Structure formats: C-alpha cells, structure tokens
C-alpha cells in the first residue's frame, strides 16, 4: 500500500513540477477600455489636479480654468487665442515642468487629430456631372430672369 501511495505522489509531483501554473491576469473593467485617448485623458486629469493643488494666485486660477475647459472640450481649442494658451502653458510649465505640459497637451492633440480624421471622411465632395451642372445653371438663370 505504501508503494502505491508513493507512486501516485511521484506522478502528481512530476506533473506539477513539469508544467508550471500560468498566472491569469485579473480582468479589470476599467482597463478593458484602455485606449490611448482614455489613458491620455486620465494622465492629463491627474496632472491638472496636481496643478490645482499648487494654485497661489488669481492668474493660476485662470490658467487652470482655461486648461480644464480645453481639456474637457477639445473642440473649443480653435477658439482660444494662441497667445493666451502660450502664456497658460508657460505658467503651467513653471509650476510642474515640461513633461507635465506634454502630458496635458497630449489628449488635446489626439482629439484634434480624431476630429480632423472624422471631418476628412465626412466631407468627401460629391462629383457633379455635366448634366447636373447644366441643370443647375439653367435653374439659376430662370430664377434670376423671373426676379429681375
């Protein structure tokens, strides 16, 4: 009986030692949507939060508000004066450093790129044939002739 248990134990221990146990990663629901844009946004939010805790003056409040608005609504970026953004980023860089400025601007640049790609796909011009052009010209000539 002892020999039987010894044989079973040696078989089991041989199987365990020859095939290592694979670690399966713990699936986190937040990491499932780990796109570059989402990761960049999280990093930028953390950086902007660190800047918020370093605010000392009214200028810092304005810089924080402007960067917060641009980061959360990147489509408003073209409406911000470039000089104001330059001053804000310099102030931000003095407080936290150039690496943090790069972290903050990354989601803005990614969203601008995504918007440009969407617009280029949507705004493909429809080619007009000569017949359609002639029909439009005739309709316009008729309209202007009637209203003159």
Keywords:
148 residues; mainly alpha; 75% helix
Molecular structure report:
The chain is mainly α. The protein has a domain at 35-116. Helix content is 75%, strand content 0%. Helix 3 (36-52) crosses helix 6 and helix 5 runs antiparallel to helix 6. The model has no long low-confidence stretch (mean pLDDT 80).
Mean pLDDT: 80
Number of helical segments?
7
**Low-confidence sequence ranges:** none
Query: How many β-strands, per DSSP?
Result: 0
Helix and strand pattern: HHHHHHH
In one word, what is the shape?
flat
**Percent of residues in beta strands:** under 5%
- The helix fraction, in percent, is over 70%
Strand-pairing-aware structural class = mainly alpha
End-to-end distance: 116 Å
Radius of gyration equals 31 Å
Largest sheet: none
What would a concise description of this structure say?
The chain has 148 residues and is an all-alpha fold. The chain is built from 7 helices and no strands.
Topology of this protein?
Layout: H1 2-18, H2 29-32, H3 36-52, H4 58-72, H5 82-96, H6 98-122, H7 130-147
Helix pairs in contact: 3-4, 3-6, 4-5, 5-6
